[in-house]
Specification:
- It is a single chain.
- With 266 residues, the chain is of the alpha+beta class.
- It is 41% helix and 21% strand.
- The protein has helices at 105-113, 126-140, 154-165, 173-179, 184-195, 199-216, 221-227, 233-244, 248-263, and strands spanning 16-22, 27-32, 37-42, 46-51, 54-58, 62-66, 72-77, 80-86, 99-102, 143-144, 147-149.
- The chain is globular and about 60 Å long.
């Protein structure tokens, strides 16, 4: 099914409803919820997802898992999507929070095929097997740490959102503490209490989230590192490798190779 509203098919008695949708660059889907859980996959472009818990960056050939009832907003930057809307009792991910998931070549092709899945598919036939296999693949999909939780306190949340818009690794906790008229010790305790992370770890996550789309859009490692305030490309690459398990160059190369595999080199 392509470009049809979920409301038209949400009621069908099937564990999975699959819808493909094309969005123009800059499309903003404002805050909303779904009765079903959702796996939102962007085959092209980049998605930015906001929830009450924080912000996710979803690069191409990755998807975001949204539990049932999770309030969210999505900004689409030239994205063609496949969405799986899944009954809560059939949800394959146990986490109560959102996750950015790696989409394997197999899952990619299953999601492509899901565009031909009718709302009332035959559960005992090929279409039913396709739906079940997608659920199994979602259960096994590894997650990416591309998340920056947002605090509940409005003043601190405002500083975090400003930072996410212009991240810089040299931003100092004492500067934030001064803006909030707190001591640095009190600020550090408040920040961890509100986000579950130390300021340094959160700052690094935010910079990593900013780095991924820049690298995938063709920015060099050196330029990306310097724009984010790192002392050297080596320092940036070391952080990137520690968190994502590979260097920035290898990450981009793998993404390019995966794109070629998934598109048949076209």
């Amino acid at each position: 099914m392509r470009n049809i509203p979920l409301a038209d098919v949400d009621h069908v008695a099937r564990p999975v409803v699959a819808i493909g949708t094309d969005y123009s660059p800059g499309t903003l889907l404002d805050f909303h919820t779904h009765r079903r859980a959702q796996f939102l996959y962007g085959m092209t472009g980049l998605m930015e997802v906001d929830t009450d818990d924080g912000t996710w960056v979803v690069p191409p050939y990755s998807g975001v898992w949204l539990p049932a009832g999770k309030r969210h907003r999505v900004r689409m930057n030239g994205v063609s999507t496949r969405s799986l809307y899944i009954e809560p009792v059939a949800a394959p991910r146990p986490s109560p929070g959102c996750e950015v998931l790696v989409v394997s070549p197999l899952l990619h092709h299953l999601l492509l095929a899901s565009a031909n899945l009718p709302a009332l598919y035959d559960e005992s036939g090929r279409d039913g097997a396709l739906a079940q296999l997608m659920l199994h693949e979602l259960q096994l999909a590894p997650s990416l740490p591309l998340f920056a939780p947002l605090p509940r306190k409005p003043e601190l949340a405002s500083l975090c959102r400003d930072f996410l818009a212009q991240p810089h690794i040299r931003s100092l906790p004492e500067e934030w503490a001064n803006q909030l008229h707190r001591s640095q010790r009190t600020f550090n305790r408040l920040f961890r209490q509100q986000t579950g992370l130390s300021f340094a770890v959160w700052r690094q996550q935010a910079c990593l989230m900013a780095a991924v789309p820049r690298l995938l859009s063709g920015s060099s490692v050196t330029r990306t590192a310097l724009e984010l305030g790192y002392d050297s490309p080596g320092a940036f690459s070391s952080m990137f490798r520690k968190v994502l398990g590979q260097s920035p160059t290898a990450f981009v190369r793998a993404a390019t190779r995966q794109e070629e595999e998934m598109t048949g080199g076209s």
